[in-house]
Amino acid sequence: MTLHAPECAASVQPGQFVHLRVATGSDIILRRPFSIHRAYGERVEILYQILGTGTLLMAEKPVGDESMDLVGPLGHGWRAPEGIAHALFVTGGLGAAPLGMLAEQLAAHGVAVSVAMGAPTKERLVARELFENVARQVLVATDDGSDGEHGFVTVPAARLLAEERFDVVYTCGPEPMQRAIAALAADAGVPCQISLERLMACGIGACLSCVVLTVDGLKRACVDGPVFDAAEVTWKS
Amino acid sequence: MSGSIDMRVNLAGLELRNPVTVASGTFASGREFADFVDLSRLGAIVTKGVSLGPWAGNASPRIAETASGMLNSIGLQNPGVEAFVVKDLAWLAENAATTPVIVNVSGHSVEEYAAVIERLEDESGVAGYEVNISCPNVDAGGMAFGSECAPAAAVTRACRAVTKRPMLVKLSPNVTDIVSIAQSVEAEGADGLSLVNTLLGMAIDAETRKPLLARVVGGLSGPAIKPVALRMVWQVSNAVAIPIIGMGGVMNATDAVEFMLAGATAVAVGTANFVDPTVTMRVVDGLVEYCHRHGVTDVRDLIGGLEA
Question: What are phi and psi of A171, to 5 degrees?
Answer without folding.
Answer: -140, 145
